[in-house]
Design a protein that fits this description.
- The protein has 17 helices and 9 strands.
- By secondary structure, it is of the alpha+beta class.
- The protein folds into 3 domains: 121 residues, no CATH class; 143 residues, no CATH class; 147 residues, 2-Layer Sandwich (Nucleotidyltransferase, domain 5).
- Strand 5 and strand 6 form a beta hairpin.
Length: 457
């Protein structure tokens, strides 16, 4: 087996070991050997024998018809801290929901190449940031410039000596000659290509840029780049033209060199200037595309105004709601205690309210629990037209999209959608905290007193 294949299999094995379980019906998960409690395996009590622990599945701790966790059984098997973590995990709406693996390093639970690559490098204790700590100031300034991304990466490669120069290829035993093919008189490295090659000297002499300043003659390539970036940005501003001209000239020299190496096109001053003109046109098009002409929206504008989030989760589109419901959640990160509450109003007067204590892993989970409780009550009371107020943009966003979700509340979101299907009209709207103040105060009360409230006002 080749080294490349062994490396891929090793990386695949490492990534699979990082996946954790999302509890569905609990049938597929062994409670003592698989990570199912926020990526960890809970600790069994000392009085639970090994055979019992090995044969126990997560399904054994779920009440019939997915009515919640069997709290008494959890306390018999696990330590108190683990019981709290388990109770903070949501359960699916349907009993036939299967357990599944998910990727814990993205909010959606779906694997991404970026997160996987970052995890592998982190496991190897490597720095995978594009900003080197030594030149962090230089790179922060570089990334902020309004230039083409390929130019930014090009400068990054020069600074790190990552270009495929003849000297670098010789170090890796890819070639046997480190000579510059343009001048045939020196070792080809980044200093030679961009500063000391006769062609480069000739090009810089014919530009308006003062790159032959004797004060920087002995600078390293990194210090040379940093000096001119600081000088041009300080004197011209971040939108100045001299630094893009500077990078465009570096790029043109590199393009001419590649033409010499790969296509046997002689690198001459004329060829370099052709690439400089081409670079200028590319940068101009980039700036124009980055700042398109603003046109007013077509009238009439039927979409919601900026910052206004509202979705319909019922069957139909209502106009004048019969009642208005405020929902809100409260969560204490240090204890995992949460409160979920809603208050129904008619003609601006509260007439029904409900709040409950729960264990949760995030504030968003308590908000979603409050929404589910309100929707269930609406469906039970056969109310045809309802408006729900929430101060959570994320809740509205996740319920309005089936492709963008949070894995930690995916079951609750599905339950809200299923319950809302039987409601003729139900709209969820994002509002300010002041507009859900009644529900907010009630949620805090339920969390702090660990109580449940259900009453008519």
């Amino acid at each position: 087996m080749s080294m490349g294949r062994r490396g891929l299999l090793k990386a695949n094995h490492s990534l699979k070991r990082s996946c954790i379980w999302k509890v569905g019906n609990g049938v597929s998960i062994r409670a003592a050997s698989q990570p199912w409690v926020h990526g960890q395996i809970p600790t069994f009590r000392d009085n639970v024998n090994l055979r019992t622990a090995a044969n126990t599945r997560v399904a054994d701790f779920i009440l019939p018809q997915n009515q919640g966790w069997n709290t008494g059984l959890l306390h018999r098997y696990f330590l108190p801290n683990d019981v709290r973590l388990i109770q903070s995990m949501e359960l699916p709406y349907r009993t036939n929901e299967e357990d599944r693996y998910y990727w814990p390093f993205t909010r959606s639970g779906n694997y991404s190449t970026k997160s996987g690559y970052g995890l592998l490098l982190h496991q190897q204790n490597e720095n995978y940031s594009m900003t080197n700590p030594v030149g962090s100031k230089f790179f922060r300034k570089l990334w902020s410039l309004n230039i083409m991304p390929k130019w930014k990466l090009f400068v990054w490669k020069i600074w790190h000596n990552c270009l495929a120069t003849s000297s670098n290829l010789l170090k890796r035993s890819i070639t046997t000659n480190s000579q510059c093919l343009t001048c045939l008189s020196d070792i080809e490295d980044v200093q030679h290509i961009f500063r000391y090659c006769p062609l480069a000297i000739e090009i810089w002499d014919r530009t308006t840029l003062p790159v032959h300043d004797p004060a920087v003659e002995g600078f390293t390539m990194e210090a040379w780049l940093e000096h001119w970036l600081d000088k041009f940005v300080k004197e011209d501003g971040i939108e100045g033209n001299r630094f893009p001209q500077f990078i465009g000239t570096l790029w043109a020299i590199w393009m001419a060199r590649n033409g010499q190496v790969f296509r046997q096109i002689r690198a001459t001053e004329e060829v370099v200037h052709h690439h400089i003109r081409d670079s200028y046109h590319q940068h101009t098009r980039f700036i124009e595309d980055d700042h398109p002409r603003r046109t007013p929206p077509p009238a009439p504008n039927y979409g919601p105004p900026p910052g206004f989030w509202s979705i319909n989760i019922g069957r139909l589109q209502g106009v004048f709601p019969d009642i208005l419901i405020q929902i809100d959640g409260s969560w204490d990160k240090s204890t995992g205690f949460g409160g979920a509450a809603w208050v129904a109003t008619r003609h601006q007067r509260p007439f029904q309210r409900q709040g409950s204590f729960l264990y949760a892993s995030s504030a968003l989970q308590t908000e979603a629990a409050a929404c589910l409780s309100a929707v269930k009550w609406i469906r039970t009371m056969n109310i045809s037209n309802t408006l729900i107020y929430t101060d959570s943009t994320l809740l509205v966003s996740f319920l309005g999209s089936t492709t963008r979700e949070d894995i930690s509340i995916i079951h609750t979101l599905q339950a809200i959608r299923v319950e809302a299907r039987d409601i003729p009209s139900c709209r969820l709207t994002k509002v300010s905290r002041d507009q859900v103040q009644l529900a907010h105060q009630m949620a805090i009360h339920c969390r702090s007193t660990r109580s449940t409230i259900q009453e008519s006002c």
